[in-house]
Specification:
Blueprint lengths: L11 E6 L4 E6 L12 E2 L5 E9 L2 H10 L10 H11 L9 E9 L4 E6 L8 E5 L2 E5 L2 H6 L10 H10 L12 E3 L4 E6 L6 E4 L16 H16 L6 E4 L4 H13 L5 E7 L8 H11 L2 E7 L1 H15 L8 H12 L4 E3 L4 H5 L3 H26 L6 H8 L4 H6 L6 H7 L7 H5 L3 H13 L1 H27 L4 E3 L5 H8 L14 H6 L6 H5 L9 H6 L3 H7 L2 H7 L4 H12 L6 H25 L1
Parallel strand pairs: 12-13, 12-15, 13-14, 15-16
Antiparallel strand pairs: 1-2, 3-4, 4-5, 5-6, 6-10, 7-8, 7-9, 10-11
């Protein structure tokens, strides 16, 4: 199993075995290069740990523990977590500021704890078969251990994937394999069936928000600077992903102030039909900051050549086609650094998506006003899409929020699949608690309600797994300062009016970074990493479409109606419609299933 994760940890490996538990680890050496080997076991053997990620407040915690008499054998962060557990129990997780997935064996109580950071930055999957519990950072490691090879697909998760492009934050598409949800710990007792799942942190609810303190801009600026400085700590070179927008420009500017010598920054852009490149904006910021800037221009022919490797790197299906530029960005950065900082999470805490501003206007219109929007659009010469008309008919709530990211609508899923899948209600069941809290937000602060929905669905389901898999495919660690505990604790308690209105987004962040980054970057609207997947699938990636979604392949798989898939392929390749996003989702799914087929065939032999 550990050998299947060499890309995540190419520098070292370690193992610990006793009569109840076996722990394995692959190490990417970032902190404490000489004494940071894992697993770490307490001298009396009563507890052991493996941890993927970084704990940014480990120095403060270490000093506290040393004051209580603890003596450390290493200089890194993982032993600090183990000794904190010995001192405080599993409740110590709430004190960790970092990104992590960990397995902690309590030999005294004969319990195994699996836990993830607040937002699920680092992955952790588990399965239970024949009385044994297995866990790993990626599915490929579980498969290498021979665990879920013959498992079928989970119907509710398949529907979730077809609807939104990713599994639920606590699930996978493979029946019997689960993900530890963000901010949660799953505990297994030796000799007992079942498991206990509990959250160790919950985001503030709608009644917890406060009015903005008068000094909030200054507090945010200093809190962000401290977060970036914390996340620069490493014994290896560190750089920043730079797109030229306010998020990455802020991280770059703060990092540039904290490092000695020029900061390394990295950007990628596109060539070919439909390409919209951010290279010029990123270059402008890099020049302003005086960074050591590196660029890469992708073209569709190169993507076609690398497609198999990119899709394999996903490990589990994720239909976000911006995985492609993330893979290239990570490869570029890894040629010069081992750690990179990124701007992920800013949109979900500060309100950076255009749809968030759009919904402010839709809420203001109310039900009758929403019905007028299609008429007004037609009078303005713009025909509303079927998706927009459907969205406008929806009442405010979680379902409408999730509808922004739909790949296939409910009706399209039912028309596409050969057998009925789980219902929409079953698909949304993992988000039932969020839906209940949404109703409270809707009465008090709908902007914060929408941001909560993004943080608990899109962020851990799509964005963070995409960045993790594409960066770790190149043995690159990516850190996300906007999700630092202290930044989040400050911003989540603030009213939504400081984040997004009908006319403005990221209001508070833009105020806080004024003068820190170029005005063009501070005021620039968000420009999505707009991968031109539609044009690419008609040109250089057309052969991949015909292979992965051929009629024979679809019939053999037995999930979808061949005529429905063939119709989408034909229309798209002929240019009569743009099904790029939907076709890419189906291609990713088929590629993943072929990998499972090969694994199962190998197991049979």
């Amino acid at each position: 199993m550990a050998a299947a994760l060499v890309h995540r940890g190419p520098d070292d490996e370690g193992f610990h075995d006793d009569e109840r538990v076996s722990l394995g680890f692959r190490r990417l050496s970032v902190i404490d290069l000489e004494t940071g080997q894992q697993p770490i076991v307490l001298a009396d053997g009563r507890a052991a740990i493996v941890l993927n990620g970084e704990i940014y407040n480990f120095r403060e915690l270490r000093a506290e523990l040393e004051g209580k008499g603890h003596r450390f054998r290493s200089r890194g962060d993982v032993e600090v977590v183990l000794r904190l557990f010995a001192e405080e129990g599993i409740g110590c997780l709430a004190r960790l500021n970092g990104m992590f997935a960990l397995a902690l064996w309590d030999g005294r109580e004969r319990r195994l704890h699996l836990a993830r950071d607040r937002f699920g930055i680092k992955p952790l999957l588990w399965t239970r078969q024949d009385g044994a519990v297995a866990f790993a950072s990626e599915l490929r490691a579980l498969l290498a251990g021979g665990f879920p090879v013959r498992s079928g697909l989970e119907p509710a998760e398949l529907r979730h994937y077809l609807a939104l492009g990713y599994p639920s934050p606590g699930g996978t598409l493979l029946a019997g394999v689960r993900a530890v949800p963000p901010a949660s710990v799953v505990t297994f007792d030796a000799g007992r069936s079942g498991e206990q799942l509990r959250a160790y942190w919950r985001p503030p609810g709608p009644e917890d928000r406060a009015d903005a303190p008068a000094d909030i801009v200054e507090r945010l600026r200093s809190t962000l600077a401290e977060a970036v400085e914390r996340q620069l700590v490493a014994d290896v070179p560190v750089g920043v992903f730079l797109s030229g927008g306010v998020d990455s420009s802020t991280v770059s500017a703060l990092a540039g102030r904290a490092v000695s010598g020029p900061l390394r920054t990295f950007s990628v852009g596109f060539e070919g039909p439909g390409a919209v490149s951010e290279l010029a904006a990123a270059r402008s910021v890099a020049e302003h900051l005086g960074s050591d800037h590196h660029e890469l221009v992708m073209d569709p022919a190169t993507v076609a050549r690398d497609l198999e490797t990119i899709l394999t790197g996903l490990d589990t299906p994720n239909a976000d086609c911006t995985a492609i530029p993330t893979w290239y960005m990570s490869r570029l950065a890894r040629s010069r650094v081992t750690v990179a900082l990124s701007g992920e999470g800013a949109d979900e805490i500060f309100g950076g998506y255009e749809r968030q501003r759009f919904d402010v206007g839709i809420d203001a219109l109310g039900g009758p006003g929403r019905r007028l929007v299609p008429l007004l659009m037609r009078l303005a010469g713009r025909a509303p899409s079927p998706r927009l008309r459907e969205r406008l008919r929806m009442a405010p709530g979680l379902e409408r929020q999730l509808h922004w990211g739909r790949v296939f609508s409910a009706a399209e899923i039912d028309a596409l699949t050969l057998e009925p899948l789980a219902s929409e209600e079953a698909m949304l069941a993992p988000l039932a608690e969020l839906a209940e809290r949404w109703r409270g937000f809707d009465r008090v602060d709908p902007v914060n309600g929408r941001l909560a929905a993004d943080r608990e669905s899109f962020l851990p389901g799509d964005l963070l797994p995409k960045v993790d898999r594409m960066s770790m495919a190149h043995s690159l660690e990516v850190r996300v300062p906007f999700l630092d505990n202290r930044v989040v604790d400050l911003v989540l308690a603030l009213p939504g009016r400081l984040k997004a209105t009908l006319r403005h987004d990221k209001i508070l962040l833009r105020r806080a970074v004024a003068g820190l980054i170029p005005r063009t970057a501070a005021t620039r609207r968000k420009q999505a990493f707009a991968t031109p997947i539609g044009p690419w699938l008609r040109a250089d990636l057309a052969d991949a479409v015909r292979d992965l979604l051929s009629g024979e392949s679809v019939r053999r798989r037995g999930l979808f109606r061949p005529g429905a898939v063939e119709g989408m392929v034909t229309e798209h390749l002929a240019g009569r419609a743009d099904h790029g996003t939907a076709l890419w989702a189906l291609m990713v799914l088929e590629h993943w299933q072929r990998a499972l087929d090969r694994r199962a065939a190998g197991a049979d032999r």
